[in-house]
Design goal:
single chain, alpha+beta, Thrombin, subunit H, seven-stranded antiparallel β-sheet, six-stranded antiparallel β-barrel
Length: about 260
């Protein structure tokens, strides 16, 4: 299924090169050859304890750092390419940490193929710390559309390469043509942009007074305007597309842990 996905990037960036506003000075040839890179929020807003996403987003550290989203009392949804960060879970902006006990990485993920399903779940024991709770997962009923407002959050580095500050920015769905292939394309050059360390973090919409998880921050397109990590778009793994896989991993973990009791 995913063997031909690596060719999708050529159609994706070609489409953007033909249809993006004139503000982009990037040439199509550059888009086709430039590498995709990992994520952190640059020029976004610092989140507070009262931010709608703060009780849902965590930082992951080991030999590297990433972000993730709480999806159950014992599970964090993150990116498969963040596997080197699957050591310690740091909850929100507090000092509560828990070790990773178990991981489930999508079987079709290929680190050489940036458009393969970049999604994983890590599990921990002992329940959630006080003040934290799972973020609801978007389903087909919540399918996003082009130009819909979306938010991106994570614990990536700042320009001084410091980690540990939760930040976020408001953006728009730039293209919805690839949701049926598991990809959500988000504008990455307006009120903030994503880059190193926020991989695995949270792309969400707001329904009423609730944040709903629609994407797992995966990677971004090639840089332009010589601005740190400023790109035309970022790519998130689209949660509704992967909902069956996510639910299967949660059920499998429940079976494994109940069998050990």
């Amino acid at each position: 299924m995913w063997g031909g996905m690596k060719h999708l990037l050529f159609f994706l960036v070609l489409s953007f090169g033909l249809s993006l506003p004139a503000k982009s000075s990037m040439k199509i040839s550059t888009q086709l050859t430039a590498p995709i890179i990992d994520l952190f929020v640059v020029n976004g807003e610092k989140s507070s304890q009262d931010s709608i996403h703060a009780k849902h987003v965590v930082m992951l550290t080991n030999s590297s750092s990433c972000s993730g989203t709480i999806i159950s009392e014992s599970a964090i949804l993150t990116a498969a390419h963040c596997e080197n960060s699957f050591g310690t879970i740091h909850f929100g902006m507090g000092n509560v940490t828990k070790p990773v006990q178990y991981k489930a990485v999508h079987a079709d993920y290929d680190k050489q193929d940036k458009l393969s399903p970049d999604i994983a779940i890590i599990f921990f024991e002992g329940g959630l710390p006080e003040g934290f709770e799972p973020m609801p997962l978007a389903t087909e009923m919540d399918i996003v559309s082009k130009a819909e407002e979306v938010f991106v959050a994570g614990f990536g580095q700042d320009i001084a390469k410091r980690i540990g500050q939760l930040k976020h920015f408001k953006s728009l769905v730039l293209e919805d043509s690839f949701v049926d292939q598991g990809l959500l394309i988000i504008d990455n050059d307006e009120q903030g942009h994503a880059c190193f360390g926020d991989s695995g973090g949270t792309s969400y919409i707001v329904e009423g007074d609730e944040a709903v998880l629609v994407g797992v921050n995966s990677n971004i397109g090639p840089k332009f305007q010589d601005v740190l990590c400023k790109t035309e778009f970022m790519i998130s793994a689209y949660v509704p597309y992967h909902i069956d896989w996510i639910e299967a991993q949660l059920q499998n973990y429940e079976r494994v842990t109940s069998g050990n009791q």
